[in-house]
Each structure stands twice: as structure tokens, then as C-alpha cells.
UniProtKB/TrEMBL annotation:
This is DNA 3'-5' helicase. One of its GO terms (cellular component) is nucleus. One of its GO terms (biological process) is DNA replication. It is found in: Nucleus. The keyword Cell cycle does not apply. Residues 218-259 form the Rhodanese domain. It comes from the Eukaryota. The chain holds residues 338 to 865 of 1088 of the full protein. Its main location: nucleus. It comes from Morus notabilis.
Length: 528
């Protein structure tokens, strides 16, 4: 399908340049177009941002129909569809509309009999499948299209489908001899997660100078203020940097984009997606979901050249992001959770989904053992053998020395300590009490006399906090924000999620953590 020997090839290449301003096609774009133009049913699995829309839409007259439009407006469109000189080349409809509107289906029939129905495109096709993460019953009604118009090619596209979801979609839509284009979500980027300190911006400056001097990059920041600060700091350090955020006027954004295209700047500190291809992507704070992270990183290395994706992670950023999500301060994630096939529509709601997505992101960052690619790809239902990473992520690069440690007792103690202290204290306070601190603040609350004070004194601080954070990512302990200030810093207290803690406390659940052996640990062993 990649060959250039079709009657439309010349026009296709020309339009890619003229209409879209692209130099070339992305992987599978040309193939998908050739297959659908040849009249086949086609199923496309392509990551978000991969360029699906180019395969079916261009700068051409289009209209849309949805159920909440005025009836007169709808009739206007129907009239146009019925006319011999219909000006629309593309009609967008919601699946609800197809399922419920006989009028629409009749009009499609009329277009079909006049040989004007060239193709049916179904975007977000995974919604057809009950096995998918985002099942929508109305999508199943789309099967009617192939029944009524068996000879009209269908192009089904999605960014998330396991093999069984794909089968389900093909069945439900009635696709025949369908050609499948499946693209791996794996990218050749170098992934790493680095502990975030107060000198994060200095670290970023150094990282860029050492690895990507004068190359293009995006730095994703959490807030507008962070963005502006980062840009200012990088300018001081001699980089051609600018900021770019959601609250900027369109004209301001256009100005920045113009500077970028003239090469006057090559580093963008952004809160929102910046649509340019780059050599490195840095996350100055925690992304909101693995899907979002994967997509943002996808801006790097589109040309196949080695590119870096560095994430600066701190647990306190997690609490900050969590707070922002609950306040609706940051845009709601368009991504739904894949875990157990639940989503915002049929589980607890958008807030729970966003929080769950954030917790998965935290556990990605907390994990210092497993291959980063593997951790990302399991979210997209893709199998991956971490040997294929070939040490292109920080975890694979590490000398692998770790132990699987049963930490059930310690986990129980931590949960119990949170209960004993009344769910009123921060995670760092709980860790202090657990490790037997006699600090003023511990004494002030009389926590040195509490049962389990010092129960974890044999543990290294890092190890104890790793266990505690694991309990948070499993939703057994919950960080609840108490206070926040205008500078965006928040303080929080730990609570026990009784229903999730039950299995652990009643002895039905064991917790085994894979812990990396740090150099300090080896030193201790040698001294022994
Ligand atoms: P998807 O629908 O797969 O999420 P889009 O169709 O929205 O992705 O495309 C993502 C971005 O990639 C858009 O900004 C688009 O302009 C750009 N893009 C698509 N195809 C190409 C190409 N061949 N070359 C350069 N940019 C492209
Ligand atoms: Zn790896």
C-alpha cells in the first residue's frame, strides 16, 4: 500500500504539501489513504497525534448534524444533501444521530443511490466495543451502515484497541476483508524520570547544554506562573526560550509560533500542547496521565532521530496536581482510564477518572525497576519485551540489582499509624513517627508515646516512603488537601480509604515490592 502507482498518487502528494503544508507523510498515512481509495474496508490503529485525520479530512466544504441542533438548521442541511449540486463533501454526524434519525438514514440512502456516498469514516471506533475502555451503546448502531450500504468502504480509526477490541469492532461494524494498519506505540525516544529538587531549573539548563545545545525542545509546566518563570530563567542562562500557555491571546500565541518558525526561539515552556516537532521534551512537573504523557513525548523524535524525554518528578507535585484537578483549575483530561475497562461515563465520574489516571502516572514515576517502555505500552494494550528497549530508558540502564521484598507488615503498620493519629497528619509526619523520630513536632502531638512509634526504625527513609507511596498509588491511603496558597503550594493530610484497606488489614492481601538496591546498601553490606 505504500507504493506510488495509483491514479490519485500525484494529486495526493500535491495536496499533502498544498493543503496541509506537510513535507511528507507520517507512517501509515499514505498506506491508509491508498487502501481506502481502492475501495477496501480499513481499520487503523494509530497513536493520538499520529495524524489520523489527514487520512479522511481536508480543507473542503463540510457540515455537521447533531441531535441538539435547531430543527430548521437540520432541515437546511438535509435540503442541501438532497440537492443535485450538494456543496458539502463531508458530513459529520454523531452516532446517536445515525441510531435515532430515520430521516438521516433515508438521506444517506438517497446519496448512495445517486452514487454520492463515497466513504463512511468512523473515528474513535473502539467505542463500538464493550471490551473497550469507552463503550458507547450508540456506536453499536453504526452496524446498520454496512447493512444498508454494503459496497461503500468503511474507514474505522482509533488510538486504543487491543486485539480483542479490534475483532469486536470489525464484527459489530460488519467490515469485510478489512485491511488492518496497526502501528506500535513504541517510540525511539530515550525516557527517564529524575527526582525533582529545588534547583530543577538549573538541572534543566545543564541538561540542555550538555545534551541538546541549541536544539529544539518543549518544557511542559504545570501552571502559567511556572511557565513564565522557566522561560525567564532559561533566557538568563542564554537559551532562546519563550513561554506559551492556555490563557494567552491567540495573537500572542501566533507571535510565539512565528518566532519559532523564524528560529528566533527554540525552547518553549508550555502548559498546553505545542504543535511543533522537537528534539527533546522535558516535564518540569508531573503529567496528568500516562496517555497524556505519551502524547506529549510524541512531539520528540518524529523524524526517527534519538530524542530525550526527561520527567522531573516530586511527590509534592502529585499533591499539587491532584488539588488542581479537584478544583477544576487544569483542563480535564480527555483521556479515560483503561484499567478494568472503566471510564468516566460508567464509573464514578470525571473526577475519579482523572484522579485514577494521575495515580497511574505517580506509580510510573515511583517505579525505578521496570522498563519505561513496557510501563507505557501496557496502557495501550500492547505487548512489549523489555529486552527490546536496549537500555534506552533509565530503568533498563541501571545495573539491575533488586530484591522482591514482602512489605505487608510494614504496609499494615503504616495504615494503622494513619488511623491511630486520626487522619490529621501529612505523609512526612507519618513517616517520621514510623521511623521513631523525636522531633519537636512529634512530641507536640505526643506521637512518641503512640503504639507503632518507631516500628519502622530499621528501614531506610527512602524505603519507608516508597512503601507509603505505593499505598497511595493503590488508593489504600489517600492524600487530602487541606490548604493551598496563591503560589500554588498545597499541604495535605493522609487518610485511610477503609474499603481499599480492608483486604490488607484483614490479612487477605500481601504486598510485595521490588526494591532497587542502592549503592549505599552495597556499602553497608561490605562493612558488615
Ligand atoms: P490524530 O487524529 O491521530 O490524533 P491529528 O490528525 O490531529 O492526529 O494530527 C496530529 C498533528 O500532526 C496535527 O497537528 C497535524 O497537523 C500533524 N500532522 C499530521 N500529518 C502530518 C504530516 N504528514 N507531517 C507533519 N505533520 C502532520
Ligand atoms: Zn527500558
Amino acid at each position: 500500500w505504500s507504493s506510488g502507482n495509483f491514479s490519485w498518487t500525484k494529486k495526493l502528494e500535491a495536496n499533502n504539501k498544498k493543503v496541509f503544508g506537510n513535507h511528507s507523510f507520517r507512517p501509515n498515512q499514505r498506506e491508509v489513504i491508498n487502501a481506502t481509495m481502492s475501495g477496501y474496508d480499513v481499520f487503523v490503529l494509530m497513536p493520538t497525534g499520529g495524524g489520523k485525520s489527514l487520512t479522511y479530512q481536508a480543507n473542503i466544504p463540510a457540515a455537521y448534524l447533531s441531535a441538539n441542533m435547531e430543527w430548521t438548521e437540520q432541515q437546511e442541511i438535509f435540503r442541501e444533501l438532497a440537492s443535485d449540486y450538494c456543496k458539502y463533501k463531508l458530513l459529520y454526524v454523531t452516532p446517536e444521530k445515525v441510531a435515532k434519525s430515520d430521516v438521516l438514514v433515508r438521506h444517506l440512502g438517497s446519496l448512495h443511490s445517486r452514487e454520492l456516498l463515497a466513504r463512511i469514516v468512523i473515528d474513535e471506533a473502539h467505542c463500538v466495543s464493550q471490551w473497550g475502555h469507552d463503550f458507547r451503546p450508540d456506536y453499536q448502531g453504526l452496524g446498520i451502515l454496512k447493512q444498508k450500504f454494503p459496497n461503500t468502504p468503511v474507514l474505522a480509526l482509533t488510538a486504543t484497541a487491543t486485539a480483542s477490541v479490534k475483532e469486536d469492532v470489525v464484527q459489530a461494524l460488519g467490515l469485510v476483508n478489512c485491511i488492518v494498519f496497526r502501528q506500535s506505540f513504541n517510540r525511539s525516544n530515550l525516557y527517564s524520570v529524575i527526582p525533582k529538587t529545588k534547583k530543577c531549573l538549573d538541572d534543566i539548563d545543564k541538561f540542555i547544554k550538555e545534551n541538546h545545545y541549541d536544539e529544539c525542545g518543549i518544557i511542559y509546566c504545570l501552571s502559567r506562573m511556572d511557565c513564565e518563570k522557566a522561560a525567564e530563567k532559561l533566557q538568563e542562562c542564554g537559551h532562546k526560550a519563550a513561554f506559551y500557555h492556555g490563557t494567552m491571546e491567540l495573537s500572542q500565541r501566533a507571535f510565539v509560533q512565528n518566532q519559532w518558525s523564524k528560529d528566533e526561539i527554540n525552547i518553549i515552556c508550555a502548559t498546553v500542547a505545542f504543535g511543533m516537532d522537537v528534539r527533546f521534551v522535558i516535564h518540569h512537573s508531573l503529567p496528568k496521565s500516562i496517555e497524556g504523557y505519551h502524547q506529549e513525548c510524541g512531539r520528540a523524535g518524529r523524524d526517527g532521530q534519538r530524542s530525550s524525554c526527561v520527567l522531573y518528578y516530586s511527590y509534592s507535585d502529585f499533591i499539587r496536581v491532584k488539588h488542581m484537578i479537584s478544583q477544576g483549575v487544569i483542563e480535564q483530561s480527555p483521556f479515560t482510564s483503561r484499567k478494568n475497562g472503566v471510564n468516566a461515563m460508567n464509573s464514578g465520574g470525571i473526577l475519579e477518572t482523572n484522579t485514577e489516571n494521575l495515580l497511574r502516572m505517580v506509580s510510573y514515576c515511583e517505579n525505578d525497576v521496570d522498563c519505561r517502555r513496557l510501563l507505557q505500552l501496557i496502557h495501550f494494550g500492547e505487548k512489549f519485551d523489555s529486552a527490546a528497549c536496549k537500555k534506552t530508558c533509565d530503568n533498563c540502564l541501571k545495573v539491575k540489582s533488586f530484591v522482591d521484598k514482602d512489605v505487608t507488615e510494614m504496609a499494615k503498620h503504616l495504615v494503622e499509624l494513619v488511623k491511630l493519629t486520626g487522619g490529621q497528619h501529612s505523609s512526612s509526619h507519618i513517616l517520621e513517627v514510623y521511623r521513631g523520630s523525636l522531633s519537636q513536632i512529634v512530641k507536640k502531638h505526643k506521637h512518641e508515646i503512640i503504639r507503632l512509634h518507631g516500628a519502622g526504625k530499621h528501614l531506610a527513609k527512602g524505603e519507608a516512603s516508597r512503601i507509603l507511596r505505593y499505598l497511595v498509588t493503590e488508593d489504600i491511603l489517600v492524600e487530602e488537601v487541606r490548604k493551598s496558597d496563591v503560589y500554588g503550594s498545597v499541604s495535605s493530610v493522609l487518610k485511610v480509604n477503609q474499603s481499599k484497606a480492608y483486604d490488607l488489614c484483614s490479612g487477605r492481601r500481601t504486598i510485595v515490592l521490588r526494591l532497587t538496591l542502592l549503592p549505599a546498601f552495597f556499602l553497608k553490606l561490605q562493612n558488615w
